[in-house]
Every structure is written in C-alpha cells, then in structure tokens.
Amino acid sequence: MAIGTLTPPVSPEEIHETLLEFPDNRLLIDLCGEFDRNLAQVEHGLSVQIFRKGNHLAVIGDGEARGQAAAVLQELYARLEAGRSVDAGDIDGLIRLGGSDKDTGARDGDQMELFQGGRVEIKTRKKTVEPRTEAQKAYVKSLFSNELAFGIGPAGTGKTYLAVAVGVSMFIGGHVDKIILSRPAVEAGERLGFLPGDMKEKVDPYMQPLYDALNDFLPGKQLAKLMEEKNIEIAPLAFMRGRTLSNAFVVLDEAQNATTMQMKMFLTRLGEGSRMVITGDRSQVDLPRGVQSGLQDAERLLSTVQGISFNYFTAKDVVRHPLVARIIEAYDADEAS
User: Fold this and answer.
1) What is the rounded CA–CA span in Å between residue 51 and residue 236?
2) The pTM is what?
3) Within a 10 A sphere around the Cβ of 321, how many other Cβ atoms?
C-alpha cells in the first residue's frame, strides 16, 4: 500500500520506479519513522509515491522528483548510519536543498570541519545545526568568511538562530573570546508601561529570543556560568555606546529598529579579532513615524564596501510552520498591489 498519493498526477508513461536497498532493518524502521511519517513527508514534499518491500524502498514518480526523493532517502539513511537522528526539519532541509549539499569550493583550514563532505554543519555543545535552504547555507558561509555580515529577511528564516549558532561554534572553538548579543529595546507596536525590577529585569523581556537561542546550543549550567563571567553578554543596543568590542562574536538582532545614529554607533564598535552580524526584517519596523531605520541606511551606504556581505531571505526560506511562509507571502502580495 502506498504511503500517499501523487500530487499532481502524472500520466502512466511518465511513471518509473527507483528501487533502493537499505541493509540494516533497524535503521530502515527509523528512516520510515513512526507510522511511516518520514516517508509521507518526502512523498508530500516531492510528489512521489514510496512503497516498502522488505528491506527495499520503491520510489515511483517522474524522473526529476524520483531522483531527488531517492537522494533524500539515501542521505537520511547515511545520517542514521552515522548515529545521528532524523526529524521533520532534517527532511524539510534536504528536500529544499535537492537531497544533497554538494560544494566543491576551497575553504580555510579553520572552517574545514564545518563543511565535511560538502555538508554545512555548525557544531555546538548541545546539537549540530544545518542550514535548510540555499539562502541559509550561503548566509552561514558568509558568517565564517566575512568580518561583518548582514542577514535581512522575514521572520522565521533563521537569521538570528544561525548567527547565534555560529557564534557559539566559534566561541567553543577558541576563535573568539566572548559572545555579545544585542537588540534595540523597542516595543512592538504597543505600550508596555513601566516594567518592575532592576535594569536586567526591565530589559530581559526584549532580549528573550536571544536567551532562547543560546539555550538551544549550550547546557543551562554552562550558559549561566559563562554569563556570570561575562563571556556571554546580552544587552540592549543603547549599552554599546563607548565600547570597543574586540575578539568577540557580536550580533545585533532586530536591526530594523535601530536609528541611523544607533546603527553607525554600533558598527563602529567593531574591534580587532571580532566578527559582527546584523540581522533584521525591513517589514517590521517599530520606530516612531518619520524616524528612518538604520538598517535601510546601512544597506544603501555599505552595499559596495569590501569585506561586508549582505544576505537576503524570502518567504521560501521560512523554516517555522509552513503556514508562516504563506502568511508572509500574503502580506508581501498585498504591499506590492
């Protein structure tokens, strides 16, 4: 019995079968997933049918989709053979990247371990992170090869998450001495009033997405110790004035809410041995009416400056719930009309 149906249908003369053998039945069970949900995801994503025949999987569909599905299944099986897990995000990433992640470009020695076998990987204490789209892959590579990189695009495209992952990877690898994460403390369209508590308690609600990302990559006790020792800092943008950030991996998140003067101030904090990442979404500016976004000015002024990379994401790069991408596309279409 097939796991799913062909969408859209193909004519009988276009249908062909690719038979794949997977010798380890235990790993094949993991490959299929509970109630064959992994196979169903591949079927739905690539418009093929997949049948299980003993320790074989038969992939049925047109030539290109069938070949891509076969490549996805083989790559997932290779991950399981290497002792790694397979989840829905891994499958989605491979489908978006065409089933494999081939790259033959030359790389620095320090980066070689991050690009094993043509695969882009970011190793942290708790997990290994992989880009799921071509734009994410290009973004991660730019973070390792440029001292200043911009990531610009809609929510859910992994701009901040991947930047923090790279920062943690470079920190535990000894390439930087500290991680500094910052955001403008701007309310998102509503007045929150006076928050109780000391300064940290007042600004922490604005910084929570950065804490969430760090908690994904570092054990809780280690993260608490690193923050206590100031090896990891999370602070509002206003606290960056007057500092020189040397030997650090620095991330400015939600940069669309920085003013032109704040952006200039932040960019000029870059010190020796540091890398800086600026992330933002031009469609979510929360500055008062008439105040120019520093992110837009930075794009205009710095796009041709050597050593600075600009990386752009679209709704196709959203890696949250699929509905998020459709929501973003609907709003974009409305603005364009």
Assistant:
1) 54
2) 0.71
3) 10
